[in-house]
## 1
Amino acid sequence: MSEKKLALITNGKRLDGRKLNEIRPMKIEAGVLAHADGSCYIEMGKTKVIAGVFGPMEFHPKHKQDPLTGILNCRYRMAAFSTEERIRPGPSRRSTEISMVTANALTPALFLREYPKTMVELTIEVLQADASTRVAGINAASVALADAGIPMRDLVTSVAVGKVDGQLVLDVAGKEDTEGETDFPVAMLPRSRKITLMQLDGHLTKDEFGKAMDLAWSGVDTIYKMQVKALKDKYVKEKIATEEVQK
Amino acid sequence: MTTDLLAPIMRENVLRLLNDNLRMDGRKADEFRVIELQAPILDKPSGSALVKMGKTTVMAGVQIELGTPYPDTPDEGALSVNSEFLPLADPEFEGGRPSDESIELSRVVDRGIRESKAIDMSKLVIESGKHVWMVYVDLWVLDSDGSLIDAAGIAALAALMNAKVKSAKVVGDKVEVGEDSKPLPLKDHPVPCTVIKVGDKLVLDSTRAEEQGMDCRITVTTRADGAICAMQKGLAGSFTQEEIAKAIDYSVERGKQVRKLLKIK
């Protein structure tokens, strides 16, 4: 263990220079894959995640179909090269849990009852991990699902609040995750303010919960605008491309 | 599957009763079942406990074994929590690979213990970087009638409370384990509390029937000082921030109640 504890906040600035309530620079691109019905590539700082959606399509195995609703199947994995130390490919207990909470975060946004007996297959692959990978995954997945044309009540937007050197920070990155006291990822339907994912590990008092949620909402509102823009940009590009062809 | 067909009927039933703040077993929405606890319950493992909440029955065993520390924590012992949802506990439980729910339960219980720093890991070192004690907590679900995470979390805590660590000394490059033992040093006593949401109603200590029709659930684990050390929103569905704040309040109270039952000062 290191002798001197690393100061994660100095003079109100975090290790990467951000203020406590700032999110990392982000990039969101919709429709990046040729074959998937919907897709999205996202960068939140150094975390890079790609999401792809196929469906709605026939559910296999047939005996697990639900006659009343389509089902969202989510597969979250980390690429072998996504972290400094190689990760053995394949599922892990962690990736199983994250796949589950991600599906649960997104399902409330989808009108799956319109597609009974089908499945929507969502794949989230973390290409580079610098904390908040499930958050980036959910943000990318929402855009990918919308890109696939799945009817949705709203996008789902996610962000992680952390506690570092005793202070709450928005959008946990790198060492803030490994050396910080708390990791608190949340996801919501921005317009109805409904919370569809909430997990915590670390330490948070009831008072801090309220303040952490204020930070989270501000992060969600910012990221939501970027998700919407990514979708609009894709269709503007397509419109321009179509017009070119028609000329 | 029969249970899926019953789900909407059960949900309607549950909601109808909840409108008058009633439940099928006569409890109010915020009432808990009586907890039956036997700790220890077994002789062979280091620590053990049996928890019953209504028909929900979970047995926990703690075994403390020699191991090597993780490379980034040479001066700490290690914790591993595992759960088995036995097929005899519920017609829906299949044998074989752990289900997603089983993995979720073990990870949520683990989080509560780990993040509250309940076990003083530094006291589990025999030789820095080489020999440490590994604490294995195994949660066996014997009968399922709702609130499995809560029952498992309480059983884990009760088992850890009667677990013993043997004495050990390094001789050359081997470890000699002695006959005498000391209680496992615990610094905190985390207690999980799960609130389910049915329609717009929040229900505590849900039964399996109530869970059939639930929209979602949130588990909040609190430490002895009332701070939250773990949270897990489960299943699809959504919560408002106010509902979660209420769940946190319930959890703080539940934590106090359970610690009193476990006779923690």
## 2
Amino acid sequence: MLNGIDPIIIFNFKAHQVRLNPNTPIPLVPTDDVTIDLPAVPIYLSEALTGVIIDSEDKHVDIDTTTVALVTGDKTTYTQRPIGSNVTINMTASKNSIGVTLFSALSDLILPKLASKEYSITYLHGAITVFQGLLSAFSITQNTNDDRYNISITLVKPSTAKQGAVDVRPPGNPVTLAG
Amino acid sequence: MDEFTWYKIINRTEFLATGLVSRSIDVVLEGIGAKTVLITVGNYFSITIDDVMLSVGITDASPFIFSGYAVFADLNGDVWYGVPK
């Protein structure tokens, strides 16, 4: 439940509304992005409710580090930029659980919306939270020896914060012989 | 020189000190936008922006002008990229 006892994963969908500029009869490209929120689909990760239990959770932050070592032996310089913050949830469910059906259907529903980003996924479980994340990977594996499914979802937490100083080059004057 | 707007890209002396033969950097040229600059060191020190490769000193002309764009290395060793005004 939302008070933190059961983990919850919420699939949010929205639709872009193409709207022409209302100030002119000339059909111009719309300048504002209007989206319509569609009903969200929450899935409680509870064995009693949806037949899904969490095996493990994994959170990792990936950073791209470029190292430049000078042949002169001067101090090495480092440039870093964020790649992403990912959360991977590994779950187990029985073959007949409603959770497996929901995950399988929703993951197919997301595929055509990837480019337009008309979806987001929120995951809440104690300290591991992802708000309006994006789906990075999804898999369902059936075991041959029993009727269980292993479900794995990886969510990317898009960063909205400014990522440090941007390398802006203003126009300048080269130093020439004429000064 | 006056027909171009000059943007400083990199210092040639410092880049040669790294021993690298190529490097790609992302810069934002004020008034133009974000560009990816490929810096290469071969027989000449070159910068490639928007598929236009400009080499410093490849001819006797300074600045070197090609496809309407220019490159110039000044007395401090700074390599400048010239965009037509």
